[in-house]
Each structure stands twice: as structure tokens, then as C-alpha cells.
Amino acid sequence: MSLISRNLQAVHGAIDAAAQAVSRQPHAVSLLAVSKTFAVSAVLEAAAAGQRAFGENYLQEALDKIAVVRATRPDLALEWHFIGPIQSNKTRPIAESFDWVHSVEREKIARRLSDQRPEKLPPLNICLQVNISGEASKSGVPASEALAVAHAIAAMPRLRLRGLMAIPEPTSVVAEQRLAFRQLHDLFDQCRAAGLDLDTLSMGMSSDLPAAIAEGATIVRVGTAIFGTRTYAE
Ligand SMILES: *Cc1c(COP(=O)(O)O)cnc(C)c1O
């Protein structure tokens, strides 16, 4: 068994344990494998072990991998999620090549994605990224503006607003991890109470996955625990 498939098995075990600890169904949490900086061979190895959904942060790197996989292994039907920062002049290839975008933080970006989503594809699945920790430097719409932006996105014809995403400030204190995730869940409940048909809470990474699942994550985005430590090119 390859290292990646063993890691995937361990992550699924961690998801199941975290879900059972709070009496949630393990299948209510889906695993997004974050393959940024890893070669297409790593994606294919994970796919061979049954993984279908992959997350990417860097547009050109992602487009290269998607093209290789679609050309050489169309049978795999992988699902591609864009989770990185979005420049407004780069929305078209995102709208054309991805199934999901988790990192929408402005109405203007959402409008461009909707306008540019090809008619032959289903609506693009969207998570609104929220700045739950509240620091000025962090990405995401401020929590106080999230409901209004969510309403605007939900009305865009070629998008399907699925839910909220956050990357809280890193901390090893589990109580702090849970507090941040709970804040995102509260916002999610507010959006639903306001009539938005949301089903997705994208939260939790390798180091805070149990806390995210305890607070209701439906998608966890895991890179390191599956593929190993990343090394960034200079
Ligand atoms: C890199 C990244 C991840 C995965 O992080 P790990 O700590 O490697 O699991 C998840 N979400 C986003 C938005 C990322 O950029």
C-alpha cells in the first residue's frame, strides 16, 4: 500500500473518530484532499485509493494538473475545488475549470465567476470565505457583512451558494479552535434562518480537524496529513 493511501486511511479514521465522538454520522463529513505543490502523480495516487475531490490554491499549477488528469484519465471524473486567493483578472479560468470555489470573499469576484461560468457546465458551487478571527490581515468577508454578501451571491444565476468557509488563526489550543469554528457555524445558522439554502461548512485542516468536525464541518480540507510536508519553490 502506498504512503498516500495509508495516510488517506488514517485521515478517514480520524474523521470517523471525531464524528463519532460528537454523535455525527462520519459520512456527513467529506474529505477534500489539498494537493497544492504536489505533482499530478500524487493526485493520481490518491485517486487510485478512492479520493475524488481535490483542492488547489495556485491557479496555473492547478490548471496544469487538471489538464493532465482530464487528458490522460477522463475515467476518473475528479472534482476540483479552488481554495486560494482570487485575483479579479483570473476569474475566467476558475469559472471554466473548477467545480467548486471556497475562497470567494467579495461580491465583485462572485459576479465575474457567475458571468464567466460556461453555459454547458452546471452552476459553480460557492463557499463564501469569512474572516472569523477578525484580523485586518486575514482574508475573508468580515462576519458582519457575510449575510448581505451571501444573499447577493445566492441570487447570481450561474452560481450555487453552498455555504461558508473559514481559515481561523492557527492555535494549538483546542478550545480556541472550537470557538472559531463555532462562530462560523453560528453565522451559517443565521444565513439559513434568513432563508438561504446552505448545506456546507468548509472548515478544518490537518491540525484542527477534530475541532472542526465537533463544531459541524461538512467538508474538511486536508493537505499535509495526506501528502506530507509541502516545500515551496523559491
Ligand atoms: C493549504 C490549505 C489547506 C490544507 O492545509 P494542511 O494544513 O496542509 O492540511 C486547507 N485549506 C486551505 C485554504 C489551504 O490553503
Automatic annotation (TrEMBL):
Its signal peptide is none
Cite the NCBIfam families for this sequence.
YggS family pyridoxal phosphate-dependent enzyme
Chain positions with N6-(pyridoxal phosphate)lysine modification: K36
Q: What does this protein do?
A: Pyridoxal 5'-phosphate (PLP)-binding protein, which is involved in PLP homeostasis.
Q: What is this protein called?
A: Pyridoxal phosphate homeostasis protein
Q: Does the keyword Oxidoreductase apply?
A: no
Q: Which UniProt keywords apply?
A: Pyridoxal phosphate
Q: What organism, scientifically named, is this protein from? A: Actimicrobium antarcticum
Coiled-coil region: none
Could you tell me which InterPro entries the record lists for this protein? Ala_racemase_N, PLP-binding_barrel, PyrdxlP_homeostasis
Q: Name the family.
A: Belongs to the pyridoxal phosphate-binding protein YggS/PROSC family.
Q: Which Pfam families match?
A: Ala_racemase_N
According to the entry, every stretch annotated as the Alanine racemase N-terminal domain falls at 20-230
